[in-house]
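Hello,

Our lab assistant flagged a job as stuck in the queue for most of the afternoon. It eventually completed. Since we weren't sure the result was trustworthy after the delay, we are filing this so someone can double-check. Below is the sequence as submitted and the structure that was eventually returned. Let us know if re-running is recommended.
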Amino acid sequence: MKTRLLGGVVALVLAIVGACVLSSYVRASDARAQAGMDPVNVLVVQQHIASGTAVDEFKTLVKLVSLPKSAVSDSAVTDLKGFTGKVAAVDLVAGEQLLSSRLVDPKSLAAPNRVDVPKGLAEVSLTLAPERVIGGDLKAGDTVGVFISYNAGVSPGTNEVPGHKVAVP
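-- returned structure --
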């Protein structure tokens, strides 16, 4: 009876010691796995960030995460200090590394050849056939004339048939 009781106590002690050793081994396995991979801390997007969002607005939407150096992009961001005044150039998806190439000056997001319309004037978009463009070199900000031609009827304000009128000088 004593040998059974003693054997049961020894088995229980060995089981507890074995569980403790196994638990500490499992807890340290993540650190051991990353030890040979030169871990690097980079910012990773935690929630969707829309294009055009300022860096100051999404500081809470990114988190510093330790990743193996071989999995980190060359342009990965580790700190947002040098990016004040920048915005996201494209939509950023949760789980991706924050890359410096995706943080740009807000002015770079404006459409190319865009010209601010002076107050009191209107902006009009026209599709022109190539033969209607002088020399094929019409760009935003150029001044153009718009002529309206009437093939039948009377041109408004004139007695001419057919009529031609300069609509926008």
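-- support follow-up --
The delay was a queue issue, not a problem with the job. The result is valid. Residues 12 and 18 are 10 Å apart (CA to CA). The mean pLDDT is 80.
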